[in-house]
## 1
Amino acid sequence: MKSHGYAAHDKTSPLVPFNFERRDPGSKDVVVEIAYCGICHSDIHQVKDEWGGSMYPMVPGHEIVGKVVAVGNEVTKFKVGDLAGVGVTVETCMVCDNCRAGAEPYCTKGMVGTYNAKTYAGEITYGGYANNIVAPEHYVYTISPKLDLAAVAPLLCAGITTYSPLRHWGAGPGKKVGVVGLGGLGHMGLKFAHSFGAHVVQFTTSESKIEDAKKLGADEVVITKDAAQMAKHAGSFDFILDCVSAPHDLNAYLDLLRLNGTLCLVGLPEVPLPVGAFSLVTNRRSLSGSMIGGMKETQEMLDYCAERNIVSDIEQTSVQNLAEAYERVVKGDVKYRFVIDMATLKS
Ligand code: NAP
Ligand code: ZN
């Protein structure tokens, strides 16, 4: 199947137009004509090879929405013309304990990412900065026509990555929950934690985001550079979701957890972060992490969003403006997710 999109050819050059081939759809596959693709900070980490092991040419993008244009003869959930989404995962073993439990990102054989990964058959995967994508039905989601399609795209990664740990650790009424970093993931974490009924405190380095944080559902906002504001919350949180993309001091957040509280990392800085033993043993605290979410849970999240009218706050951009968009994401200067209008591929 012929595809075209934008690719990085090394870790420093700008992304450029790229023609490539995807596998022809098989009996269980769905082909989606991509309308919009979100820009996740993970795209930038991988384009710049900040985690190591990047494979070029790389077509990034794992927040994909569009229309179904073809289905294999064993596909039951989709027909041509339906809206559909593809997220971070396109293949897992489906038989290990984790896959069977609906925890496919933790597949013991290894989950195959939508781009910058190799399928079990050894093909390189290419992502959503492109006109189309083919994926097995199991990894394709139903999208409600009720919501603004462009603003749904970020739910496929930023949405599920924050929804899943907030559900797992029981964010809800009577719980004090913190969200660190008001970016693409952070603003979705804030919306979900608020929607689940928790008392939510948004942590940010950016004074310019205080008013937005309140509008997005924060009961309180803490400027993290202000030691007095941080100290006021010492030992008080049940759960803190850390959505920061760059190195920062974890101990400052561990110190804010109450007895049995948990700090969960979803942000993926490129270097290890030091943790003091005293920050953990005090109050029997836990430090944990979470990766995206399972297929069933992702659909549940999308349905929850359709019911509650929850989408991302987005700025639309074009394939021609990727370099500027990346620069602004790195500066924390986007409200709060860029989404590429894939119609711009044609201009
Ligand atoms: P983003 O939109 O760039 O947001 C990151 C936010 O972190 C910024 O808006 C900023 O918030 C804060 N921040 C940035 N640099 C900082 C620094 N030096 N010190 C303190 N705070 C800083 O990124 P994103 O797309 O939300 O992604 C966030 C991270 O999650 C990335 O590392 C990404 O790779 C990772 N991720 C993980 C998963 C997973 O499955 N676990 C899935 C997707 C993404 P303020 O301006 O409010 O301070
Ligand atoms: Zn992502």
Note: The mean pLDDT is 98.
## 2
Amino acid sequence: MENEMIIVLDFGGQYNQLIARRVRECNVYCEVHPYTLPLEEIKAKNPKGIILTGGPNSVYAEDSPKCNPEMFELGIPILGLCYGAQIFAYQLGGKVETAPVSEYGRTEVEISTKSVLFKDCVGESVTSADSGSLGAATCALAAGAACGTGASVLADGNVKSVFWMSHTDYISEVPEGFVITGFTPVCPVAAMENAEKKFYACQFHPEVVHSKEGMKVLSAFVKDVCGCKGSWKMDSFVESQIEAIREKVGSGKVLCALSGGVDSSVAAVLLSKAVGKQLTCVFVDHGLLRKDEGDEVEAVFGPEGPYDLNFIRVNAQQRFYDKLAGVEEPEQKRKIIGEEFIRVFEEEAKKIGSVDFLVQGTIYPDVIESGLGTSAVIKSHHNVGGLPDHVDFKEIIEPLRMLFKDEVRKAGLELGIPEYLVFRQPFPGPGLGIRIIGAVTPEKVKIVQEADAIYREEVKNFGLDREINQYFAALSNMRSVGVMGDFRTYDYAVVLRAVLTSDFMTADVAHLPWELLDKVTTRIVNEVKGVSRVLYDCTQKPPATVEME
Ligand code: XMP
């Protein structure tokens, strides 16, 4: 299954996961590693190709991250994107400088379809006369730079296509052996290549959705340059995981941390198919679940449900509330909830006796967002970054560790899990603990549960529940003056959030119909005690995150 592998070397760019997802969309297995991955490990993985990501640094700055130069001698095809492109230029003898004009956002790039990378791009055709003048303008702008060095510009069969740019540095001189295959009026080297060595570089980001023909570019690299066939499929993943789990677990006992969310549900069913009754699923009701969720999870995975699992529900609400009392800082809340989770599991494991393995539904974005050591830690997901040091199990099994959310859903369907569970909207492990700004109290939990239930009910009534990727109510820590009847109130503001996203790495705000917002607002202030205002979060990600913590 993993014979065909592309390695993404991460230089700290925010789009590193997207690159990996896009490669997997070509049915080629792909892993993200820090750029410091030792050469020996790269060789051992035998990748068909390597992609260098973008990053926040300037290649010419002292201490900026660089590739091991020996990597360029391995004969493996390499694609550099943004900072990764500049690394090529800099480390192979070209020049990178601060651009006179930065480019950010959707940008029309003139690319040569003579390049294997752009051969499938259609864009908007450019007449040869236009192309010549654009080329000339580029040379004039880059006087003394790329064109001045005699580097050739592939200009035949040029098309203009829209790609996402985000750079303040640019390549002003290409290394020996490279030709320019793309440019804009202010960026003389938007793409370059040394086809003989299979080195390709794009200043733009083909991986983001705004790059209209970006998938064609990545697919051309993966399939045509690297020669991947694209045989990585979900059924082979499921089968090989079941086999691998059986081999690893032997006759050992396994404990699964089940939250009822998509990830842990898929992990649980995968494990139950692999080791049957050797598995016990423990569902911790930490008192931070959505309204009635504990009972819903029990109905599906408990003795009355369709699965043949050992199921234990632990009602630990008070224990979590006690630990969280007075804690306001979101990262601290995450750590506390994560640690308490593990303690509860350890206790249950002791009761069951000689448990060898703990299963968690960690997925790839959790792993990457918790920090590969190259990019900033945005937040630590409770099941990775927050893991306590002393865990009382032989080993942790994370069968979905290398999968993205949409791939987890595919695996779920492959395992026969009902669609209504597979397509459940995501709910964070730390639950309402991170949807309540400031200190968590049982009263605040009740408020946000009730408000959220109303919101979800009305979104469904409006027929929008499958259209919006994630929507929920959060509780701001803001209290403000209101008036109800003849009385002054001083109550909380509930915040409604609804986002459209395919990968949860970036998200647009859903433009909910006013009638829906109006109805939800009226119902919440009328029906939920302690709320006097309802606000709608209009912020996209970035700069915000999906959760409001
Ligand atoms: P953010 O807030 O990081 O959320 O933009 C992106 C997606 O991740 C979910 N999320 C979590 N899921 N454990 C999880 O299993 C967590 O700790 C966690 N924090 C955020 C969030 O709901 C959204 O879908």
Note: Confidence is low (pLDDT under 50) at residues 125-150, 375-391.
